Amino acid sequence: MLRYKVTFAYDGTNFAGFQRQPHMRTVESALTKVVNKMAKQPDPAIVVYGSGRTDAGVHALGQVAHFDFPFALPTESMRRGLNSMLPVDMEVLKVEQVSDAFHARYDVSGKRYMYRMDLGEFRNPFKRNYTGHWKFPVDVALIRQAEQDLIGEHDFTSFVASGSSARTNFRTIYEATCHRDEANNELVFEFYGNGFLYNQVRIMVGVLVEIGAQTRPVDDIQRLYKLGDRRNARRTVPASGLYLKHVYYEGDDPEHPTKLPKHQR
After folding, report:
1. pLDDT tens, 40-85?
2. Residue 122 main-chain phi, psi, to 5 deg
3. Pairwise CA distance, residues 128 & 139, whole Å
C-alpha cells in the first residue's frame, strides 16, 4: 500500500459538510467513492482521512487528505484520474506520495481560514452562497485594532459553539487580518492559528463586525475571554462566507512549526 496526500478545493454549497454521513452528500464520501473506484475496490475499502471537518456550506481552497492506495500511480496520473471522476464542485489541486508516517489530521501544524463578508445594502443573489452579508457601516480601523486581542494563546470558550468535542478551548492565533475589498464591496478576514474550535471563526467574525459597527466596544474581546460564556458573543455569521484556505504541516511554515498538542485536537 502506498500513501498519497491530496490537496483539493470544493464548493461547499451542496455538501452536508466534510464528514461522511449515512444518506448524505458529503465531501469525504465523494472523494472516498472516487478513490475506491480508481483502485477497483468496494467502497469504502480504502478510507480517506481529512485534515479536519468543515460544516455544511463551508468552502475549501486548500483542504488536505490522505489515503493508502493498493498500487503505484504517478502523482499527476492520480490527480488527473481523480478529477475526471469527481463531481464538478470538487477539484484535486495536487497529489504527493508521502511516507507511511504522514497523517493528514494528526500532523497538522496550523490552518488558515478566510471569511468574505458582502457589504451591499441587500443580499446579492449571485454571492449568497459565497459570502456572508452585513449591510451596516463598519470602521475597518476598529476591527483591525480589536483583532490584535486575538493574537496569541487564549481560552476561546466564548467563541465555541455547543457540540464541540475538543478537550480544551485554548488555541493560539498567529495572524488575524481584515481589509476592505473595494472592487467587490466586501470585508475579507483571514485567521491563521494552530487550530480552531467548532464555529470559532464564524463567531469571531460576528464579534468583529459588531465592533466595526460600534455596537461593541473595541476592547470587548478581552471581556469575552474573562466571561467564558458563548451567549455573550451572540452572533454566528453564515457558513457561506467561510473558506479553509490552507493547511500547514511541519516544515511548511518555519515560524510556527509545532503541531497542535494531542490534548487540544
Report:
1. 988 779 999 999 999 999 999 999 999 999 999 999 999 999 999 9
2. -120, 160
3. 23
Binding-site residues for substrate sit at 113
Nearest by Cα to 69 from 101, 32, 106, 18:
32
CA distance 103 to 247: 12
d(CA 204, CA 25): 28
Q: In the block, which residue shows the cell 486548500?
A: 62
Helices (H) and strands (E) in the chain, counts: 5, 10
SS3 state at 217 = coil
Look up 55 and say whether it is catalytic: yes
The one catalytic residue in 11, 43, 55, 155 is 55
Per-residue pLDDT, 257: 57
The better pLDDT of the pair 56, 167 is held by 56
Specify the amino acid at residue 155.
D
Distances (CA, A) of 147 to 151, 179, 227: 7, 12, 18
- Going along the chain from its start, the domains and CATH numbers come out as 2-98 (3.30.70.580), 108-251 (3.30.70.660)
Q: Is the dihedral of CA 103, 246, 15, 6 positive or negative?
A: negative
Q: What is the pTM of this model?
A: 0.94
